[in-house]
Amino acid sequence: MSDAICVDKLCKEYPDFSLQNVSFCLPKGSIMGFIGENGAGKTTTIKTMLGIAKKSSGSVKLFGLDYADHEKEIKNRLGVVFDECSFHDTLTALDVAKILGKIYADWDDPLYLKYLKQFDLPEKKKIKEYSRGMKMKLGIAAALSHHPDLLILDEPTSGLDPVIREEILDIFLEFIQDEEHSILLSSHITSDLDKIADYLTFIHEGKIVLSRSKDEILDDMGILKCSLEEFDALDKSSFLTYRRYQFGCEILIKDKMNFIARHPDMIVDPVSTESVMVFYARGKTV
Amino acid sequence: MKQFLSGLLLKDLLNLRPMTKTLVLMFLIFGVIFIPMGNVMTVYFLLMIFAALLPMTSLTMDDMAKWDRYALTLPVTRKDIVKSKYLMTTLFFGVAIVISGIIAGVSYYLTPETATPFWFIALVGSLGLFYGALLFPLLYKFGSEKARYLMFVLMVVIGVLLVGWFALFGDTLTGNLLIYILITAAVSVAAFIASYFVSVRLYEKKEF
Asked: What's the average model confidence in pLDDT over A230-242?
């Protein structure tokens, strides 16, 4: 299986923040959730990948092609949606079609109009009169209407109500039915990613802390709750991160089954995407 | 013109629709007041100012909509984006010069004694273009918010240049005037072209 995205040791320096050796690959035909708290580097990674911000070093390949060398070819197969609407307030949804129709080689007007209808977006209303959810859906409709193979979405569901969020997730699931299609979706709304992601990549303070398939993460990892004395006595090689409280500890365990086999008397709870995110963001490493 | 360039241009023209309407209205009002007074020069100036104002506004609007970061995900290069802005400016100046020419023709036909000579349009147009040539790199370097103030400084600079022009060539206006106008126009066009390359370089380095 080839990769839709392959980012290798991507670095980007800012005076107060840096991306350090960001590496991950998104296999074709799947959805990757890109998770991290606000300011962890999700948007910076996406912008640096796409050349909107200049990388300091590292390589980015989309569809197996080097991004810098095949920019136009890649961009014709790519749909991007940012967390805020990128279209000017004075335009209408039909204006957007006129503009993008000239820019994209494979723009499909009937398909775009179909999406507008499906998403209940008025064609002739000015975008400034759209609600936040409508703007987001317009961005998605625009990103889908030139038959892209890859969608890159930066927090498309943040600030939206659960009904619209689910509606948007359904659109993504429909898109991914085609095996050639892939999605990279950044979010800190972990419940959304629980619903649709095949792979999860966690970023914290500009570094990738974990990038694996969601099922592996949920199957393998576990949360051990124990007392401080037990914590001190345990072999820490199977610990990923831990959080110490006044009366006890919570520990993120790398290999749940192996740990339980060695410590049958201890209780290990299953992890959720959210707990893993919080453990990596707030826990201490051993 | 390449297809995607016309797309970027169309985006600007659609965005500037409301402003263009206001400017046309303003122009009509001023035209009705100034042209019968024989003050056609003011109208030329006004047209050139409008022509310079519109591209600048489009950059401000792009900044407000966070358009550029999105535009960079479309199948266009950074160079294309800058090119579309310069094309748009050329287009607006073209329209302004054509309208000025028509007004000059009509006013010459109606009141030949007070009509301003045609060469004046070329001079005003050149200065407008020169203004654009200076303004775009500033906009790309400092962003539309800060460049707004620099715009007024530039206006003064152009004013001084204009006064200087008359001080230098004013005495010889009766002589081989055409040469001086041509030199001014050529310098402005050259500055505009050079400005494009400077802007491309500045925009290549920009991050959004």
From this structure: 84
Could you say which of A75, A88, A98 has the minimum Cβ distance to residue B73? A75
Contact A91 B77 (CB under 8 A): no
pLDDT in tens, B39-59: 777 788 888 888 888 888 899
ipTM of model over 0.90: no
Q: Is A278 on the interface with B (CB under 8 A)?
A: no
**Side chain identity at A146, as an amino acid letter?**
H
Question: Could you say which of A53, A90, A102 has the minimum Cβ distance to residue B6?
Answer: A102
Is A279 in the B-facing interface, judged by CB distances under 8 Å? no
Please give the pLDDT value at position B82: 94
Task: Specify the CATH number of the domain A3-213.
Answer: 3.40.50.300
Q: CATH 3.40.50.300 spans which residues of chain A?
A: 3-213
Judged against a pLDDT cut of 70, whether residue B172 lies above it is answered with no
pLDDT at B101: 85
Contact B72/A76, CB-based, under 8 Å?
no
Q: Within 13 Å of residue B201, how many CA atoms lie on the same side as its CB?
A: 5
Burial code (b: 16+ CB inside 10 Å, e: under 16) for B81-113 equals bbbbbbbbbbbbbeebbebbeebbeebbeeeee
